[in-house]
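Researcher: Next entry in the queue.
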Amino acid sequence: MARGQRAADTLQRTAFNVAYPGGVLHLGGKTHVMGILNVTTDSFYDGKRYYAAKDAVNHGLTLAAEGADIIDIGGESTRPGAHPASEADELKRVIPVVKALSRQIKIPISIDTYKAAVAEKAIDAGASIINDIGGLTLDKRMAAVAAAAKVPIIIMHKKGTPKTMQRRPMHSRKVLPEIISYLKKSIAIAIKNGIESDKIILDPGIGFGKTALHNLEILKGLKELVPIGFPLLIGTSRKNFIRTILDVSVQDSLYGTLATVAIAAMNGAHIVRVHDVRATVQVVAICDAVMNQPT
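Model: Structure for this entry, 295 residues:
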């Protein structure tokens, strides 16, 4: 990875090569699409839909066929108000799916968890990226697990816990400085524990303890995160602020989601995390074509 180096003068994103066991994510010229696979009973959009392992595996195969670059598997809902799942329940949900999918697809699998033990066992089962909403702060062993496995780690900012975060969201009128400070502290934890700098991806945590205005500020000011020097992931898919602005149900929030995806890609996001892969692949292809035009 060449941190701080432009992939080409015609690109608006810094280029990064993020190695994972079995391959490399070439981030910069192409917006990567991370497909969401929730193996849960209470996720806000697809809870219970893919709770059975067979259904989850089949959906993962569908996401891959639709063009996903990464499949993100989670066994605990982190929607606002959600109750935490036990480690045993989370393992029971995700490990069979990770094992089955890793044998059938070539794209990397990310394990969406803040529990180090779950991440460790998922990596043993075939996952090759950790997506930690805790930003390496909820489980003090997480950084050591990622360093030992030599896998990329997605470090996310959040305020509070999923159960309480929207009851007491951030109070700052401008949240980007606070997010940047938090992420820098998490990066320091990562480096101190032996995680290589070219395996770090940052997520400002849209919807995690933020108001609708905060989420809009993040999207509009995403380029302020670029100087930190790491790839950026954005997850807006079907979230409440979109539904609030448009006054639509979660089922009718696809078009709003796609608008936020386009804004994120054009403002510097390297990866977008979504439920609707097929539509998103088309949107980011147009964004990438525009950004890659010679000036």
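Model: The longest strand covers residues 32-38.
Researcher: Noted, moving on.
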